[in-house]
Specification:
Length: about 200
Amino acid sequence: MRSLAIEREFGSGGREIGIMVAQKAGIPYYDSELIKKAAEAQGVSAGMLEEFDEKYSGSFLHDFASYLNYSQGAANTVYDLFYGLQKTILRLAQESPAVFIGRCSTEILKDRPDVLRAYIYSSDLQKRLSRIVSTEGITQAEAQTLIEKKDRQRKNYFKYWTKKEWADRRNYDIELNTSSLSSEECAGILLDIINRG
């Protein structure tokens, strides 16, 4: 059995699909748990890592301040936090097959032949909005704002740490569109592939 690493558009159902695959395969699922494990390994508060989690914008002032701290040997900079997260993902993938959601896991695990890298998206904005309204309990207008914010954060985070474009199909082994496939169908496709090993 292979591990599965997923990048996903906000509101595409990527997290839900990842959970389904993990449950059906009987393997661990790592999302926010990665943050806690990385925090424990580095001796920093989970709150500090959560503030950093998939939000690093790469703005010039933020980068410059972080670089100065890093170059002067400051502990627990965003660089230390990311590399701690990277080590945690690599260690967990070594221990057993698992499902990893976001946090550049598709890129961190790209050299492992036992990992399937997937990108989950939806070409139907209305379906994404409806899903967010339902899951988050917010208005359609708030959902639109949240989609733009979350996708921008994920895109910037991915580009900063990998130097690659988040939605570039060359980064992934498979892309699934939840506007034409249900979450159950996507989970079934991914489960079939990882079970083949």
